[in-house]
């Protein structure tokens, strides 16, 4: 079964925790010249506003893949963990 990244949300559900499992220090992002997270996150959880010079992260649709953690060369995360038990993403491939 082949699946496109954009189609993964058709077979995905989330139990969203109020407490984010990923916490970003947006001040670190201001000095970043690459912003790899905005281009590599398959869930598009990161948004850079050039006008406001601000990074926004929304954990609600996070696929927990870890790509943002790997591509961030500025160590902008004050916390990156998987969600607490019972929360987070659930993939149903049937």
Automatic annotation (TrEMBL):
- What sequence ranges are listed for the domain 4Fe-4S ferredoxin-type? 20-51, 53-82
The record's annotation in PROSITE patterns points to: 4FE4S_FER_2
Q: Which Pfam families does its entry note?
A: Fer4_9 (PF13187)
Top-rank lineage group of the source organism: Bacteria
Q: Which UniProt keywords apply?
A: Electron transport, Iron, Iron-sulfur, Metal-binding, Transport
Whether Electron transport counts among this entry's keywords is: yes
The keyword Transport belongs to this UniProt entry's keyword annotation: yes
Gene3D superfamilies found in the cross-reference section: 3.30.70.20
Q: What is this protein called?
A: Ferredoxin family protein
Tell me what organism the protein belongs to: Geoalkalibacter halelectricus
């Amino acid at each position: 079964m082949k699946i496109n990244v954009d189609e993964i949300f058709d077979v995905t559900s989330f139990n969203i925790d109020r407490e984010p499992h990923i916490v970003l220090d947006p001040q670190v992002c201001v000095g970043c010249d690459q912003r790899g997270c905005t281009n590599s996150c398959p869930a598009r959880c990161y948004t850079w506003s050039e006008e406001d010079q601000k990074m926004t992260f929304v954990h609600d649709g996070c696929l927990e893949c870890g790509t943002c953690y790997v591509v961030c060369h500025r160590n902008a995360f004050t916390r990156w963990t998987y969600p607490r038990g019972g929360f987070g993403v659930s993939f149903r491939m049937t």
